[in-house]
Amino acid sequence: MLTCIFEDGNKASLRHAVVDVLVLKDGKILLVKRTGKLLEGGKWSLAGGYVERDETVAEAAKREVLEETGWEIGELTLLTINDQPDRPREDRQNVAFVMFGEALKEVGRPDWEVDDRQWFGLDDLPAKAKMAFDHARDIEFYKKLISGRPVPVIKQ
Predict the structure, then answer these.
(1) Percentage of the chain exceeding pLDDT 90
(2) 3-state secondary structure string, 44-72?
(3) Which of 15, 29, 32, 72 registers the highest number of CB atoms within 10 A of its CB?
(4) How many distinct structural domains can be found in the chain?
(5) Does an H or E element contain 79, and which?
């Protein structure tokens, strides 16, 4: 949580904005294995991270994908916004903008946050227990979307 002090002196705890990106190519998805130094270390996850102060959500997504995978990606499509305040296994509250985009070109190597990266078929993913956070759910949501099956609606 972030603690902010507003102009009127009031304090509030705010959540972080993050991006999670399904990087796709030839019917496969690129997942990264988080380094052991991070929360959920040793597990597979979508590329992603925090939105920095002076960037858009799309800019953050492209930056995080490049940093964590070494791949440049094309246009992004918003899949969902995950704003559950009790997202599993997180050490702080995050609002995730979950997107997908096509991998264009490999131009580098993953940064220190990643121990491994691997392309998986959408029907040949790691077990949910080996996936970080709620990223397996995001991939299932994407699979429903592309299959034409009904996708969940926002409940209030």
Answers:
(1) 73
(2) EECEEEECCCCCCHHHHHHHHHHHHHCEE
(3) 32
(4) 1
(5) strand 71-82
Is 1 inside a domain boundary?
Answer: no
76-128, pLDDT tens digit by residue? 999 999 988 776 666 667 899 999 999 999 999 999 999 999 999 999 999 99
- Compute CA distances 122 → 23, 25, 30, 75, 118, whole Å: 12, 11, 10, 20, 12
Tokens read off for 74 = 């094309």
Does residue 115 lie in a domain region? yes
The amino acid that residue 8 corresponds to is: D
Write out the residue range of the structural domain in which residue 46 sits: 16-147
Q: Tell me, what CATH number does 62's domain have?
A: 3.90.79.10
**Pseudo-torsion of CA 141, 132, 46, 33, nearest 10°?**
-140
Residue 42 domain flag: yes
